[in-house]
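Teaching assistant here, posting this on the class forum so everyone can see the example we discussed in section. The complex has four components, and the goal was to see what a joint structure prediction looks like when all of them are supplied at once.
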Amino acid sequence: MANAYSTIDALAALGDPTRRAIFERLSAKPSAVGELARGLPVSRPAVSQHLRVLKQAGLVRELPVGTRRIYRLDPRGIAAMRDWLDAHWAAALDAFKDFADTQADQEMPS
Amino acid sequence: MANAYSTIDALAALGDPTRRAIFERLSAKPSAVGELARGLPVSRPAVSQHLRVLKQAGLVRELPVGTRRIYRLDPRGIAAMRDWLDAHWAAALDAFKDFADTQADQEMPS
DNA sequence: CTCATTAGTAAGTCGTGACTTACGGTAAGT
DNA sequence: ACTTACCGTAAGTCACGACTTACTAATGAG
């Protein structure tokens, strides 16, 4: 089943600051692993491991070109996260409305 | 400065699975700490600590009622995350377009 | 056919943070 | 005033994961 753009994995992946940095750099420009590592305070293998996590989370796609692997963001993973956020945002608004009504009922029973 | 609805903190906060569970329960219904803990596989102090992180991330608001503290989601924190995602999503699309053009130029120089 | 460049993997270290139990503090009920 | 219920904080433990330094593999150039 590998990855199905599950928001769960995406949020866990972006929980790490280094992965967020990689994510932001890729949003500005698709890049190879070494290129990313040169602009970050971690080693190249570390970047490689982070990219694997991001890929499994459905946030990143890779395409090999020669001996290099160009990584770019996967809009589908981002869209899945946004849908998840929107759903809970809407649910929270509804739930708070019900909650407020209940409170009002308790304080003004009639 | 406390919290300013920074997406950075919000993503880090939702990176933890227990905090995501709390977040989802609060989206369905504002709840007190003990009520949340009763439905989760962790102790009440653990829930308390998670709620503090969520609050500092701008994702949650609390209102004291008697000896209890009712927690509910803060739409502003969610909106900040969504804006961040949308910005990077748009940037990624533009960057990929430029990237594709560059690739085409390199393969068909004229 | 080397040699150089790029990148993923293995193995091991180490700090962080997610948990626990114990405690103190506040509000409501009797 | 005493008890009960609810909650945050302190302190300490422990596992996980984010790093590192090897090593191996694959592609391109000379």
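For the discussion questions: Confidence is low (pLDDT under 50) at residues 105-110 of chain B. Helices of chain B lie at 7-14, 17-28, 33-38, 44-56, 75-107. Think about how each of these relates to the inputs above.
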